[in-house]
Design a protein that fits this description.
Blueprint lengths: L12 H16 L1 H4 L9 E3 L2 E6 L4 E6 L2 E5 L8 E5 L8 E3 L17 E9 L4 E11 L5 E5 L23 E5 L5 E7 L7 E3 L4 E2 L5 E2 L7 E2 L25 E3 L5 E3 L17 E5 L4 E3 L2 E3 L5 E3 L4 E3 L6 E2 L2 E2 L11 E3 L11 E4 L2 E5 L10 E4 L17 E5 L5 H12 L8 E12 L5 H6 L5 E3 L3 H18 L5 H16 L5 E7 L2 E8 L5 H20 L2 H9 L5 H21 L4 H14 L7 H14 L5 H4 L8 H4 L6 H7 L5 E4 L6 E4 L1 H5 L1
Helix pairs in contact: 3-7, 5-6, 7-9, 9-11, 10-11, 11-14
Length: 667
């Protein structure tokens, strides 16, 4: 592998993690690496994101999330070091309503864990979208998506064929695509492309002209007089993004949505997705040979005259209602028959404002993973039902950001949020029998309580089909008692292994920021419970007291504050943790629990004794490590438990700042 120096380019998600990885290694091995050529940036070339160290002639590089090293003492042969997740936790990014900006043509530059919250305007409901882009050891890019976009769906008054649902999908694309000897036509057996928000693109519409049924379904891609789904005559219901659902609830596009790229740019349009053959799909703008920035023009034109008339012919003028109304005339526009062209040595497809809109065919060989005949994949979801007046979009964003931190998550999580008033009375023995919470005044109506309870039980029925009737009855009694007595719930329950169930009651004293924190905190407990082996749980519960409880609460506090610092800005993660721990200690709250635990964890991270990665991605809870590794015989743990509170407050700054004292690092 030859690493060529290039100029730093616009930031992408992989660069955030590359900087994090390289900085971590530089702090661990300063004498081995030396000083980097560029201390605040990384470089890109040939699909690699890398950093060079001139003093030692070592280069560290990421190809997507595959990590490599070469040069200097390491030798001339490239060394594979596995994935980035072995060293640092991958960032989780909220891409809700963003426009893409990166024009890099190789899929390895788009490795990321992305989430978004989309609103279905037709039903006024919110859904969490997710897209996880990875690179395998062979260089193939794998995209895991639940097929939901990063923008709102539908419109008020629009009725799709079926409600929008999360439909898990997995596709693979080559990071080194090649042009084929012959173009591949669009097909009903295959999806044409996937865009960088995780939504698939289909060029063909489902209907053709028929003398007996004007808009008959036709599965043969070569059948004549197929309606163009973008034409008004097709009567296909599309939203403002040229998308709609099919019968399964799968949302997909029939064109390039303008929401994904700048519509009046001053530079060439970015990559917004990849076709099934691995070649990039760009927005509409490029710089032509004269140096003019303009939209790319399709080379398809309407045929002159009128269509033939007859039993199987629609008649009328060639007006774009049917795909067959168009013919390709080479040179009439900028693009070839597949709606692509080569710019500066790179072939790619372009979004156009005329037929074929995005793809006319595929110039390369489509990957088999785009076949519609493949078995569906499993992809855990994050959902929410919110009965408070607080913004569902932001609450669900907090939950989704947390849940996607997990490195190997299997469980679906749904968080139920509802309002209660102030505390109403002391808890009775009966209260303690059915709920571990304090009774509050009930503020929901009976109708709302019944509606919420129905949703909860429906979630259990869907998620836990093997639950016996007795357990289901007990769960119903417990949940009804909780709702009808205003329990101030803040917990993540597990009705069965395959599902996590967040129960969060917002009291009249709970402000929005606190509610977001509680939801984030409890969602992280869902990650812990998902990753924990049942045998470890049994050992933990049979051998209390141990460190497992404060480690669980401390890590949940740590990651919740990390996510909220990213969402809200203001105080950094470190300042949030140290401030709360300092105030707790000053108030005499010294028992190892939530804030004390997160401060102890932060101290171990800053001492270099604990990798932050295992906190952020939940892998601390794999196997039985909270019992076997992080116990009191471990001097690192016992030291942190006796020094987490060594925090100095600096009142001379605005706002007041906090830091661990020198003594905390000397113990």
């Amino acid at each position: 592998m030859t690493l060529l120096l290039t100029s730093p380019m616009a930031f992408s998600n992989i660069e955030v993690d590359a900087l994090k990885l390289f900085a971590w290694l530089e702090s661990k091995y300063p004498d081995v690496l030396g000083t980097p050529e560029f201390t605040s940036s990384v470089l890109r070339t040939q699909g690699y994101t890398y950093r060079h160290y001139p003093e030692t002639d070592i280069s560290l590089a990421l190809f997507g999330d595959q990590f490599y090293a070469v040069g200097g003492l390491l030798g001339k042969d490239v060394i594979s070091l596995g994935t980035i997740e072995n060293f640092v936790a991958k960032s989780v990014t909220d891409i809700s309503n963003i426009e893409f900006t990166l024009r890099a043509a190789t899929c390895s530059y788009f490795v990321a864990k992305n989430i978004a919250v989309t609103r279905d305007l037709s039903t006024d409901s919110y859904l969490a979208a997710k897209l996880d882009v990875r690179v395998a050891a062979d260089g193939t890019c794998k995209l895991l998506s639940n097929s939901l976009p990063n923008h709102d769906i539908g419109s008020f008054g629009i009725d799709f064929v079926s409600p929008v649902l999360a439909v898990p999908a997995e596709v693979k694309i080559s990071s080194r695509p090649k042009l084929a000897d012959m173009a591949s036509p669009s097909s009903f057996t295959r999806t044409d492309a996937i865009l960088l928000n995780g939504v698939k693109l289909e060029s063909l519409g489902p209907n053709c002209f028929s003398s007996t049924d004007e808009k008959a379904l036709c599965a043969d891609a070569n059948q004549p007089w197929r309606y163009d789904p973008r034409s008004g005559g097709a009567n296909v219901i599309l939203d403002a993004y040229f998308g709609h659902t099919e019968g399964t609830g799968l949302y997909h596009y029939h064109g390039g949505p303008a929401a994904l790229f700048e519509q009046f740019p001053n530079i060439d349009s970015p990559v917004i997705g990849f076709a099934a053959d691995g070649f990039p799909i760009y927005g509409s703008y490029f710089t032509d040979k004269s140096g003019t920035l303009r939209t790319a023009n399709s080379s398809y034109v309407l045929k002159p005259g009128s269509r033939p008339s007859g039993i199987r012919e629609p008649g009328g003028s060639y007006d774009g209602t049917f795909v067959d109304d168009y013919e390709y005339i080479a040179g009439s526009g900028d693009l070839d028959e597949c709606n692509g062209m080569t710019v500066e040595g790179q072939y790619g497809y372009y979004v156009t404002n005329a037929y074929p809109w995005v793809l006319g065919c595929l110039k390369g060989t489509p990957d088999d993973s785009f076949s519609k005949a493949l078995e569906p994949v499993s992809l855990p979801q994050t959902l929410m039902s919110n009965y408070t007046s607080y913004d569902t979009r932001e609450l669900l964003t907090a939950a989704a950001l947390i849940s996607e931190h997990a490195r190997d998550r299997k469980r679906n999580i749904k968080v139920f949020v509802w309002p209660v008033g102030s505390a109403s009375r002391e808890a009775t023995l009966e209260d303690r029998q059915y709920m571990a919470f304090t009774p509050h005044f009930v503020t929901m109506t009976n109708t709302e309580i019944e509606s919420l309870l129905t949703e909860m039980l429906d979630w259990i029925d869907i998620s836990c089909p093997n639950m016996n009737s007795s357990s289901r009855t007990q769960e119903s009694i417990r949940l009804r008692y909780l709702l009808e007595n205003g329990g101030d719930a803040a917990t993540l329950g597990v009705p069965c292994y395959s599902a996590g169930m967040g129960l969060v009651a917002a009291t009249s004293e709970t402000n929005f920021d606190t509610l977001k924190y509680i939801i984030a905190h409890e969602t992280y407990h869902g990650i812990q419970q998902d990753l924990e082996i049942e045998a470890c749980r049994d050992r933990r519960e049979a051998n209390e007291p141990n460190n497992s409880r404060w480690l669980a609460e401390g890590t949940a506090d740590y990651v919740a504050k990390s996510v909220l610092a990213g969402m809200d800005g203001g105080l950094s993660l470190e300042q949030r943790i140290l401030k709360d721990a300092y105030l707790d200690y000053q108030a005499g709250e010294t028992q190892m629990s939530t804030r004390q635990g997160s401060a102890a964890l932060l101290l171990m991270v800053k001492r270099g004794e604990l990798d932050e990665r295992i906190i952020l991605d939940g892998s601390m809870f794999w196997k039985c490590e909270t019992l076997d590794v992080y116990n009191d015989t471990n001097p690192i743990i016992s030291n942190a438990k006796t020094s987490w509170f060594m925090i100095d407050e600096d009142t001379s700054t605005s706002p007041v700042t906090y830091k661990f004292s020198g003594a905390a690092f000397m113990r």
